[in-house]
Amino acid sequence: MTDSDKNTRHQARMARKKAMIDASIARADQEKGLLLVLTGNGKGKSSSAFGMVGRSLGHGMTVGVCQFLKSRTDTGEEAFFGKQAGCDWHVLGDGFTWETQNREQDIATSQRGWAVAQRMLADPRYDLVVLDELTYLLNYGYLDADQVLDDISARPPMQHVVVTGRAASETLRDFADTVSEIADVKHAYRDGIKAQQGIDL
Amino acid sequence: MTDSDKNTRHQARMARKKAMIDASIARADQEKGLLLVLTGNGKGKSSSAFGMVGRSLGHGMTVGVCQFLKSRTDTGEEAFFGKQAGCDWHVLGDGFTWETQNREQDIATSQRGWAVAQRMLADPRYDLVVLDELTYLLNYGYLDADQVLDDISARPPMQHVVVTGRAASETLRDFADTVSEIADVKHAYRDGIKAQQGIDL
User: Fold this and answer.
1) Is A110 on the interface with B (CB under 8 A)?
2) ipTM, 2 decimals?
């Protein structure tokens, strides 16, 4: 096949593709506040939520972020996004559950954290609410899953919510508009590389 | 089981978990510039790269971003990150290939774009380089894959590179330190919801 043939075929193929894509864009014409769930064992769940924080701030939207497990406040994400106008950032954890080793303390911490999330989910001034690592609190039973889903579903209709964390439950997935499952195909950590600034924290 | 039993068992289980995790952290003690590949059909590949941009800026790192397919400059990510000190943002596309329908034009655009990436990959002042939607240019054959991999592997040793896009090749995966495959379990788009500001653009 000559280069000219290749170019002609390419043009025809792309014209067909454009027609399909345009029709599909025309069909997707509704707007609403979305519930997105980013789960799975791979790298990129929280990072992806933080990318959406940046996108939202770029459109002048107001964003609330609850980091439920994290207790450290030396992360790049907090240093950067926490100081941005329009971004309300809360580090709500006491460290991971295996650090505290104290179930009652973890439950109390989780419930205090959820009260912060509830305030955001009840407030239409927040266009996006990120509930980072929420799944762990649900899976350990530190929060009541029914209460959490009730609060999420009663939020203002145009408010987006992003939930991250491994092993999102079937109920949470059913409830969500968009679910991405991030598989850990390969991770530098297993080759002895420690968590890297800018990439992992 | 009483609450007190539950708490005691929890403490023992978490103490074992902490010992395992601490040992695994102690084993991962190396630092190097990573190549991360975010692929798959699900939502969250570019968002995740942009989250790492935010994290890196929070640590005072210098970041370069090449958006290879995108031609629109009204996205939230560009509005937000493009104006940040330490972030060098380039929108290098002519639109998606089905918009131009012109293979020769797409090849020329891709090669001009790659020259921008090459400059970043050769410059140790960049701590992180994001090559957003690069896989499409490789999969369509618009760029020479060997050249691209040579340029990535010749970069400064502490520079991180994040590549996004569907259908990353086996070669690219082999080459990477971390690979996440993002599965599209569910997407609001298929329910007629259009791309939402802050979430998708």
Assistant:
1) no
2) 0.92
Mean model confidence pLDDT for chain B: 93
Task: Give the residue on A whose Cα is nearest the Cα of B33.
Answer: A196
Q: How far is A115 from chain B (nearest CA, A)?
A: 23
A92 and A71 Cβ atoms separated by less than 8 Å:
no
Instruction: Give the residue with greater pLDDT, B96 vs B170.
Output: B170
Q: Does B117 touch chain A (CB under 8 A)?
A: no
Q: How confident is the model at residue B102 (pLDDT cuts 50, 70, 90)?
A: confident
Beta strands in chain A (DSSP E): 35-39, 63-67, 87-91, 128-132, 160-164, 178-186
* B189 to chain A: closest CA residue: A28
| pLDDT value at A95 more than 80 | no
Question: What SS3 state is found at A160?
Answer: strand
The residues, ordered by sequence, that sit 6+ positions from B119 with a Cβ below 8 Å of its Cβ are: none
Place of tokens 């569910």: B186
The model's pLDDT over B43-85, given as tens digits with 9 standing for 90+, comes to: 999 999 999 999 999 999 999 999 998 777 789 999 999 999 9
Output the CA torsion A30→A56→A54→B130 (10° steps): 30
Domain range list for chain B? 1-30, 33-191
Q: Options 3.40.1350.10, 3.40.1550.10, 3.40.50.300, 3.30.559.10; which CATH number does A33-191 get?
A: 3.40.50.300
Strands B35-39 and B160-164 turn out to be: parallel
Closest CA to A37 of A122, A116, A112, A149: A149
